[in-house]
Amino acid sequence: MSYPIGTPGKPWNKEDKKAWFELQSVKRSYLDDVVSQLDSLSSDFNIEQYGALSYDSDKYPLYILKSKQWQADKPVVLVTGGVHGYETSGVHGALAFAKRSAKDYFADFNILVAPCISPWGYETINRWNPNATDPNRSFYADSPAEESAAIMQYLADNTIAPYVHIDLHETTDTDNSEFRPALAARDATTHDNWNIPDGFYLVADSERPHDAFQAAIIKSVEKVTHIAPSDENNQLIGVPQTQFGVINYQAKKLGLCMGLTDAEYVTTTEVYPDSPQANDDICIDAQVASITGALNFIVNK
């Protein structure tokens, strides 16, 4: 597939990245959609600003919710959303969990919720940041993405070592129509089109897969929405399925958000909002069910 920016066979230079940036436009408001909801959560959480994006520090402050009943001897749960800003249910699923369900787990866990790691990406409905960098491939030392660096710095500064990390994502039809072609053009690589799975699935960390943990999340989510079937090769997005609805990635090697800590239990959710069987509410409910399914497993194991 061709892409309108860059020279075929050559990785993007600064001018190409600038041309890409100039095509982007604001389509929704982070302050109105996300930040405006935080005050309503102040009875259960301390609302902490852990930074602001340099692109516009007034428009893009970064917030994390920290449970008020914080105790040093309780394990920490980290929920992240909006690492890819265009993946809407990740952002609103994180907020919905904080509103609806988080208090049910305060007795057992300290809970952190970072609802929107990439607010510029949220507003422009983008996978990348303004520098054409993918935050979800940038969770490593000296990160090139300030979105990734900011949350890593917050955890380091506060000596927080999560026991559980659930990173909320979506797989959308635009992954094939826009984002993978753009990636192929940016890096001068071949774009291999693949079928988008119709349904929910999980990406586990191959270094700490905890199959029973992943299975418990799938069982929780399938009460809300359908789980993606594998293709004829028993794969999802071109990756072998390890169990129903689950594939594994090397989280730290790839710089993924779920690899940003040494948490014992980690997973990345993938909701499919473009399914004819889904809608916005179902997608948000699936994200909440992912978190509650994960925490119920740990509490009861």
Automatic annotation (TrEMBL):
CDD domains attached to this UniProt entry: M14_REP34-like (cd06231)
Alphabetical UniProt keywords: Hydrolase, Metal-binding, Zinc
Pfam (any one): AstE_AspA_cat
PROSITE patterns, A to Z: PEPTIDASE_M14
Cofactor(s) the record lists: Zn(2+)
Source organism superkingdom: Bacteria
Location of the Peptidase M14 domain: 26-301
InterPro entries linked: AstE_AspA_cat, Peptidase_M14
Protein family (similarity comment): Belongs to the peptidase M14 family.
Protein's UniProt name: M14 family metallocarboxypeptidase
Organism: Pseudoalteromonas lipolytica
Biological classification of the source: Bacteria, Pseudomonadati, Pseudomonadota, Gammaproteobacteria, Alteromonadales
